[in-house]
Batch of 3 targets.
Target 1
Amino acid sequence: MNTYQTYRGLPALAGLCGFEAALKPGLTVEECVRRLKRYHYACKRLHQIFTARITAEPIYELKNGFSLHAHLCAEHATALRRRVGEMREPPLGLEQVAEANLEIFFDEILGAPTTEELVVGLYEKAVPALQAALEQHVADTNPLADQPSVRLCRFALLELGDLRQFGAQAAAVLIDGAWRAAHADWLALLDDCLAAAGGLDGTRPVAAKPIRRRHSATPYRYDGHPRRDERFPDPYNMGVNAEVFLYDEQFPPRPKTLMMFYKRLREIDVPEMMASIITETTGKPWDYYRDMTRQLWDEARHAMMGEVGFVGLELDWRKVMVNFTWSLALNTQLKPLERHAVLYFIEQGLMPRNGKRFEWEVGVASGNPIAALFQDYDWADEVLHARIGRDWYLKQFDDPKQAVQYGDDCWSRVLIDWNKWRADGLTQHRNWWPEIYRAACQRWGTEPDPAVLAFHTTYEAVRADLKTISASA
C-alpha cells in the first residue's frame, strides 16, 4: 500500500478517503442498519415534539424555530428511511420503538411543562446526543463501503449544528444558573435515560440504574389552544379586514403592501393550526407527515417575511393586531380532516389570477422590491401547497368539487365569536389601520390619502375569502 500510486497522483477513491481508511473493517450492514434505525427514531421523535409544541408555545421566535426544526427533522428522517430500505431490510420495522429507555427520554421532553424545560431538553440533551451518535458513525464506518450513510450523517450534522446554535442562544436568554440548579434532578433523569439505553446509538455500556418517569408519568396530551407572548396585545382583534382593502381597486399599491405584510405576519396562525392536523392525524404514510411539515414551515417563513417587511420600513409590527382567531376556532371546533378541508379550500382560492399572482403584481407595482420578492416566493410556495393538498386531501374524495365544497362547508360551520369576545372584554376590535398607515406615510415622506386613512371594514360580516358571514353563523 505504501508504494501504490494513482495516475499522476490524482485523488484516490473519488476523493472520499485514502486507502488506509478504506481498508479498515468498519461497520457491518447489520450494525449499520441497527444504528440508522436509532437515528431515524430520534429524528421522528424530535419532529413529533417540535410540531406538537408549536401551537401552545407563546414565544413567537420559538414557534418559528420549532417550525423550521420540525421540517429539518422530517427531511432527515425521510433520508434515513430510504437508506435503511436500501440495505436488505424488508420489512423495515421503522415504526417500532427503537429502545424503551429512549422512548422515555423523548416522552419526558415532549411532556416538559415549561418552555425552559422544553428548550433545554431539546437543544442541550436530545440534539447533542444525536450529533454525537452521527459523529461516531462517521468515525466507525468504512467511508467507501458505507458512503451513502456517511453522506446522510454529514448533511444531518450540518443542520443539527444550526439547531444547537439556535438552542444555545435561546437558553442563554431564557435560563440562568438558579433555574438549572432547581431542575437538576430532571436533567439528570434525561442523562440516565440515555445511559440506560447505551447512548442514543446503543454503542456504550448500558447503565443498570432504574428509570422512573416524571413528566411522562401522565401521557402527553396535545394542547391546541394557541398562545402568544406579550408583543401580541390583542390576539382576538378582527377589526381590520385586510382582504377587503387589498382587493379594492380604489386603493393604490403602496399602502396595500402594508396589508400584505400584515397578512404574511398573521400567517403564524397557520403553523398553529397545521400542527394540530399533523399531531392528531394517525396512521398516514410517512410522506404525508413530511409534506405537511414542509407546508407548515413555509407558512412560518411567510410570517417572518411579514415581520421583515415591517422591520424594513422601520415600523413597529406590535402595533398591528396579529390575531389567532382562525387557528383557535379551527383547532377547538373542527376535527383534523375538517381543518385540512378548510386549508385546502383556502389554497384553491389562492390559485386564480386574483389570488397569489395578484399579490405579487401589487408588490411589483408598489415599487417596494422586498414586497415583490416575498410575494414571488409566497406565490411559488402556495403552488406547492396546492399540490400537497391534491396528494393528501383531494384523493379522499371521488369528486374534486365535493372536496372543495366540503372545505367551504366546514369553514362555514366555524363560529367566530366576534361580539362575544368584545362583550367578554377580550377585545374591542380596535381599528389599528390609521396608526400604522400614518407611520408608514411619515417613513415614505408623503401625506396620508384620506380615503386610505378612512378604511374601517372589519371581519364581523366578511371573512377572509370575501364571503359574507350570515347572521346565524
Target 2
Amino acid sequence: MMQKEEKVVVVLLIMAVLSLIIAFFGFSSQPAVYSKDSKLDERVYVEGTVLSKQMTKTGDHLIITLSNLDVKVFVTKDNGAKDVYDSLGNGDKVRITGKVQEYKNVREIVVGSAGDVARV
C-alpha cells in the first residue's frame, strides 16, 4: 500500500502530465490551410504564386493576389507592407500566414508581420 506522500506525488505527476497535454493541444498555434470553410479570426496559411501586388492609394497598405486563391492577402503599413512589396515579385512562389478577416463583406487574409510572408 502506498504511503500518503507517495499518493501526493502520483497525483501531482498526473496533474503535470494532463497540464502538458492541454497546453499542447489547446495553445498550439499551428495555422490551418485556408479554405472557404475557414472561420473569421482563424489563423491560416496559403501557398501560391504571386500574380500581382499593389500598394493602396491611401494608407500605403499592400494587396497581394495569388494564382490559386480566391481571396486577397492584405498587409497593413504597420505590419511591413513596404518591406513585403520590395521583397516579392510577380511569379514568386510564397507561403503566407495570417488571419481570416472580412472587409466590406469580402474575405481576406490579413498578415500580422512581414515575417509571415516567405518565399518557398
Target 3
Amino acid sequence: MLLNTYEPWKFAFSAENENIKENSYGIIGVPFDSTTSYHSGARLGPIVVREASFGFEKYNTIFNKDLTSTFYDFGDINVVPGNCKTTCDLVEDTVKELLDLNLKPIIIGGEHSASIGAIKALSEKHERLTVVHLDAHRDLAFEFIGEKYSHATVMRRAHEMGVNLVQIGIRSSSQDEEEFVKSTYNIQTFKNRDVHKHMDAIEYYLTNIDGPIYISIDMDVMNPAIAPSVGNPTPGGLFVSEIENILETLCRKNIVGFDVVETATNKLGEQTAVVAAKIIYDFLTLIE
C-alpha cells in the first residue's frame, strides 16, 4: 500500500502487492473531477473501469497473446476535492513512490489534470521525455476560467516541463492554442482525419521517436458513438481498431508511464468504461 491511497477495487489480473517485481507497472486511480467544465462524473472512472476489466479473458484474441505482464493495483489516491493543484501534487508524490519501487505508473482517471503530476515526476527522472497525447482537444490553454491547473491546461503545464508533445486525434481547439503550436518547435500534431486516412504515416512517426515515452489517453479521443460518457464528447473521433494500431506501435518503444482518463459515468458496465478498460487491458497485454 502506498501512502495517500486506499483500495476500493483492483484491475483484473493484477498481482498481490507483496514481493514486488521491479521494472513492472503500478496502477493508481485518481477519482477527481473538480475542474470539469461540461459533463461531470469522471471521479467515478477508476471504479467503473476496474469493474469493467473483469469482462476480458487473459488471452487477448486481437493480438494473439496472453496477458503475462506483471502489474500491481495500489488503489485510489486520496484526492482533495476542489483543489486541483494539491491533487496534482499528491499524484506527483505517489508516482514518485512508484518510481522508488522501480515501477512504472498506470493512472486511471478521473479528469485529465491527473496527468500533470505524473508527467512532472517522470520528466524529472527522464531526459527527453515525449508525451504521446491522444485527445479530441489540445489542452494547451495557459489558463482556463482563471485556473492554471485544469483539465484544459494539462498539456500546457507538461510543455512547460520541457517535454516533447505528439498530439493525436485533435479536432477541437482555440485560436490561441493553434497560435501557440505554431510558435513552438516540439509539438507534432496528427488530427482525427490524419488518423482515419494516414495511419501508416502516424505509425512511422511513432516508430522513430527516440527516448522515453509517456502515453496519455483522454477517452474523448474516441468517437462518441463508441464512448459517449466523457467530460467533453466531440464528433469525429477514433475507433477501437485505430487505438489498437497506435498501442501496438508504441508498445515496442520505451514506455515509462501510461494513463487513461475522463471516463465519466456512474453505471457499471457502461460502454465508455468497457472501452477504457479494454485500452488498459490491451496495453498490459502488449508491454513486455
